[in-house]
Amino acid sequence: DTGVSQDPRHKITKRGQNVTFRCDPISEHNRLYWYRQTLGQGPEFLTYFQNEAQLEKSRLLSDRFSAERPKGSFSTLEIQRTEQGDSAMYLCASSLGAPTPEAFFGQGTRLTVV
Amino acid sequence: TQLLEQSPQFLSIQEGENLTVYCNSSSVFSSLQWYRQEPGEGPVLLVTVVTGGEVKKLKRLTFQFGDARKDSSLHITAAQPGDTGLYLCAGRSGYSTLTFGKGTMLLVSP
Fold first, then answer.
1. In the sheet where A19-24 sits, what is the strand order?
2. Averaged pLDDT score across all residues of chain A
3. B71-88, pLDDT tens digit by residue?
4. Closest Cα of chain A to B17: distance in Å?
5. In 10 A of CB A32, how many CB atoms?
6. In whole angstroms, what is the distance from residue B77 CA to residue B70 CA?
């Protein structure tokens, strides 16, 4: 297994368009997280799945954002009607459950909204 | 809301110098993780500390978790240009998700 994989690495889109990102976690990890990181900041939590269940969502996650993990394996994050403020690095991480909840991150998807 | 404060925000040093960066909170964490992130890449996990007072070493890097599990430090001995990057601490309380600090940007010049 080569770790957490994210696709695409970079995405440039026009304001108002929809975008979808994919994350493939480490295969035996049942937990999957999405974070957003802007320049000069640490990653901010967006949402979290345990298997296929979405257990927690941040207040940062407006109704334009939706995430799925249909079979408890890969996950997608969709942003509808993108805004310039959505420009950021979107990071996916995965982990086992307790007692070893170490999270391993993918390389991220850099979104630029023009 | 659990907040993690990292200091300093930015550190520029010469190769061979020693340095310490700090991660502080008013909250107690069940575990704390340190990551290093390079520009355009995702964070890479360096270490996890779980016991108050715990010290872990990773080559020239020494990590310490405070006795009260509210703070942590990272000490680098004889820094090298390859140590350049953004150092992030992240705390977890119980089964909750990770809360990150804003990071310390380290630049090591030859």
1. A5-7, A19-24, A75-79, A65-68
2. 92
3. 999 999 999 999 999 999
4. 24
5. 28
6. 24
Per-residue model confidence (pLDDT) at position A32: 94
Length of chain B: 110
Asked whether A79 and A18 are in contact (CB, 8 A), the reply is yes
Confidence of residue A91 (pLDDT cuts 50, 70, 90): very high
The owner of tokens 């949402």 is A47
B67 SS3 class: coil
Give me the residues paired with residue B100 across strands: B90
Q: Is A77 left (phi over 0), alpha (psi -120 to 50) or beta?
A: beta
**B contact test, residue of A46, A102, A107, A110 with most B CBs within 10 A:** A102
Return the residue in B97, B99, B104, B105 with the most chain A beta carbons within 10 A, the one to mutate for interface testing. B97
Torsion on CA atoms A20, A26, A29, A35, rounded to nearest 10? -40
DSSP string, chain B: ----EEE-SEEEEETT--EEEEEE-SS--SEEEEEEE-TTS--EEEEEE-STT-EEEETTEEEEE-TTSSEEEEEESS--GGG-EEEEEEEE-TTPPPEE---EEEEEE-
Listed in sequence order, the residues at least 6 apart from B76 whose beta carbon sits closer than 8 Å to its beta carbon are B18, B19, B20, B60, B61, B62, B83, B106
For the record, the structure tokens of A35 come out as: 């974070």
Is the CB of residue A74 less than 8 Å from the CB of residue A23? Answer: yes
